[in-house]
Write a structure and sequence with these properties.
Blueprint: E1 8-16, E2 19-23, E3 29-34, E4 46-52, E5 55-61, E6 67-71, E7 76-81, E8 85-91, H1 98-111, E9 114-120, H2 127-139, E10 144-146, H3 153-164, E11 168-172, H4 179-186, H5 190-201, E12 212-215, E13 223-226, H6 248-254, H7 271-277, H8 283-298
Parallel strand pairs: 3-5, 8-9, 8-11, 9-10, 11-13
Antiparallel strand pairs: 1-2, 1-4, 2-3, 4-5, 6-7, 12-13
Helix pairs in contact: 1-8
């Protein structure tokens, strides 16, 4: 009679190639490898694994609540799972890409993940221009939190702590927005964790391109997930016909369209374009919708 093997439940906190760091229920971390040739784990995955020598073997991935993708010119790749919210950092300076911001929000909406925007460097005089660019996002019900992470860190912490508590939050932001400042403020041991993970993966030179999970409380209930850069979110899994429904400002007017399958580009009686003409949808948001729709149609 074959012996039944009991598999431990673990959390993937980092990975590079076919090497993953898995944390067990006691908080102990071990380098693991997936069974077989396929390697489809991502940070945030709950996995079943067992010890094999001084490392571990991942036998299978537990069902995911959600999954996010990034894409480049050639391929789409999953990179984080089981998230409670996205915290998207932009700043008064440098000027942020509204297209990348919109794509991140669409990806979050598609995955059913709450998203918030942090507008950093609120102490700069250029904050007024950033507020204007973010006004459409506030109007559609997205939280926009203003703070000055470097000059007023305690205020920032008081604002963020209750929003992060008990949640797994993916932090995103382009270079220069203050993401490292935020991570170091909320997770002071992050640098030490980076070093430990890098050593375990033997991938020090890859640290800056690796998504990583940090606990920011001793009880391991609240986590920040750091994903470098402000990558293009993978939206290829979205049906082109569903795109407007994932953009709250367009969705609010889509029911007013004459045709149920309106593309909002050229059809008569389009509620979205009528709202655009009335100034209820910003021109930049409508332009971004058209760009993404074109990409999705071409990839069918």
């Amino acid at each position: 009679m074959s012996k039944t093997v009991t598999l431990d439940l673990g959390l993937v906190v980092a990975g590079h190639g076919r090497h993953y760091i898995v944390e067990n229920a006691e908080g102990v971390r071990l380098t693991c490898h997936p069974r077989g040739k396929k390697s489809d784990c991502v940070v945030g995955d709950r996995v079943r694994w067992q010890v094999s020598g001084d490392e571990g073997v991942i036998e299978h991935v537990e069902p995911r609540r959600n999954l996010l993708f990034r894409q480049d010119e050639w391929k789409t790749k999953s990179f984080a799972a089981n998230l409670d919210q996205l915290l998207i950092l932009v700043a008064a300076e440098p000027v942020f890409s509204e297209s990348k911001l919109a794509r991140a929000l669409i990806a979050a909406e598609s995955a059913g993940i709450l998203a918030r925007i942090v507008l950093n460097k609120a102490d700069l005089t250029t904050i007024a221009a950033a507020r204007v660019r973010l006004a459409p996002y506030s109007a559609m019900g997205i939280d926009v939190l203003e703070m000055a992470l470097k000059t007023r860190p305690e205020e920032a912490r008081a604002l963020l702590d209750p929003l992060l508590e008990g949640r797994a939050t993916l932090v995103l932001g382009p270079s220069g927005t203050g993401k490292s400042t935020l991570i170091n403020l909320l997770a002071p041991y992050a640098k030490a964790q980076v070093g430990e993970i890098s050593q375990a993966l033997n991938s020090g030179r890859h640290t800056t391109t690796t998504t990583q999970w940090y606990w920011i409380d001793a009880a391991r209930h609240t986590a920040l997930i750091d994903s470098p850069g402000f990558q293009e979110f993978g939206l290829r899994q979205i049906d082109a016909n569903q795109l407007s429904g994932l953009m709250p400002d367009l969705r609010a007017h889509a029911d007013d369209c004459k045709f149920y399958n309106c593309s909002h580009l050229h059809e008569p009686g389009c509620g979205v374009r009528e709202a655009l003409e009335r100034g209820e949808i910003s021109e930049s948001r409508y332009r971004i919708y058209g760009e993404i729709l074109s990409e999705l149609v071409q990839r069918r």
